[in-house]
Amino acid sequence: MKRSELRMNEFFTFKLDFDSGVPLYRQLIDQVFIALALEALVPGDRLPTVTTVSNALSINSNTVIRAYKELALRGILITQQGAGTFIAPRKLETDAVQRRRRLRQIVSDFVARTSGYGYSLEEVINGLQALRFSGWCGMNRATRVHQKGPCEDKAPSRGDLE
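Now predict its structure.
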């Protein structure tokens, strides 16, 4: 099994699993989203340069560019010429009803997708709880406590929620 990793800060490390079947750019994107959810990355955090990531992880720079571009298109990253690439400030949603509606749709889509893979709702809930408490990205800024979890050994993959 070939794996590679790049520690970004004391809270977050990029980890790739070359044998997972998940495209490398997708692994980078997913890890940024997980890190945001766990507050291992917060608005204003600087991401390493494309060259730094590609060299450290032994991957093609176009892979990193693709991940960064997709994150930028989604409003997650901003690039400041000469300064670097940063986690973008979060946009405040003033409409709480719209926010709840969006979450309900995301959760419904997620449950439908996992059900398609044969997971029960209980297994999905247990998997989410394991993700929340595992310290998947090493440390959580809110608690500042290091928790050993799946990311200690490998990059997140579909099998990690089993």
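The domain at 3-93+134-157 is CATH 1.10.10.10 (Arc Repressor Mutant, subunit A).
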